[in-house]
Amino acid sequence: MSYNVEEMSWSDARNLLRKWRDDNERKSDDVMQLWDNVLSSKQSKLGNERHLVLEQVIIAALDCNRIETAEHCVSILSAEFPGSLRIQKYRSMLLEALERYDDALDELEQIIRKDETNAAPRKRKVAILKTQGRNAEAIKELCDYMKIFMSDQEGWHELCNLYLAEGEYAKAAFCMEELLLHNPHSHLIHQRLADIRYTMGGLDNIEMAKTHYCKAVKLNVNNLRALYGLFLCCGHISNSKLVIGKRKEAQKLAQWAMAQIQARTQPTAKDTKGAIKTGKSKAAGCEDELQALEQAFGGLDVGKVAN
After folding, report:
1. Which pLDDT tens digit goes with each residue over 138-166?
2. What burial letters (b/e) apply to 268-305, b meaning 16+ CB within 10 Å?
3. What pTM was computed for the model?
């Protein structure tokens, strides 16, 4: 931490925590330093921000495995807001940190029964199931969540990851197609959908992968992964039993993709000139290593074998 905590006033510490909250920065270690050295004994001066600071400290304490501090802050908030679902969520997070997963799931179930439109406890439930390695249950829970919150792009990404972990490539592709509806101009989504289709195999999937790789390259010409994928797809198509017109088109596209890859990976003239001196020194070092290897292996011509 670049700040001198010992010389900070309580108002400076409060303003710093407020700035981190506004910027959505966790900075858990720094938050705990400010709490221990400045704010823990000045809670009464925080005014309306006191509860926000306590919530911020709870998250930081859980991140830093400061369980006692988190319990203390949760108990303060629970005493002031005994029926709050928000505080109940923090209690479930505390139980999760203690690895009391069943109790944490019970707390989350209570929140969901009281407020079915609350997305946060449903996400935490999926996270706990995933932590326990119960991917099938996590997928079922996340599918139920996506039926209610269909526009949650992070949910579709997570569901795709879970399906990929289980080898359900067709369902993972469906998740990426849903994401394309929300963000059709993202080259990364097109690229990932193409990766999945390529992994599934078969000419139909390869052609679909080629289409999405082309779209990814069109949206971002510097996407090397998409260029390599496009080259591989065209290689499969050109060696397939499709009509000769499609094979010739694939060959031309493969040549173009390789030219683009080489143009982006080969060093420029300036880089080549700058690397001549270092290259000579490396070459001299390699010759010394080759001589040492030849002596070690009884005069074997290592240079010819390497070439």
Report:
1. 999 999 999 989 889 999 999 999 999 99
2. eeeeeeeeeeeeeeeeeeeeeeeeeeeeeeeeeebeee
3. 0.75
CATH of 183-264, one of 1.25.40, 3.40.390, 3.40.640, 2.60.40: 1.25.40
- 3-state secondary structure string, 240-297? CCCCHHHHHHHHHHHHHHHHHHHHHHCCCHHHHHHCHHHHHHHHHHHHHHHHHHHHHC
Token pair belonging to 113: 């029964």
Q: Which amino acid is at 286?
A: C
What is the spatial distance between Cα 135 and Cα 158, in angstroms, rounded to a whole number?
A: 11
Domain map of the chain by residue range?
A: 7-82, 183-264
- The answer for residues whose C-beta is within 8 angstroms of residue 114's C-beta and 6 or more apart is 85
pLDDT tens digits along 260-299: 888 888 876 555 555 555 555 555 555 665 455 445 444 4
Closest by alpha carbon to 229, among 177, 186, 193, 184? 193
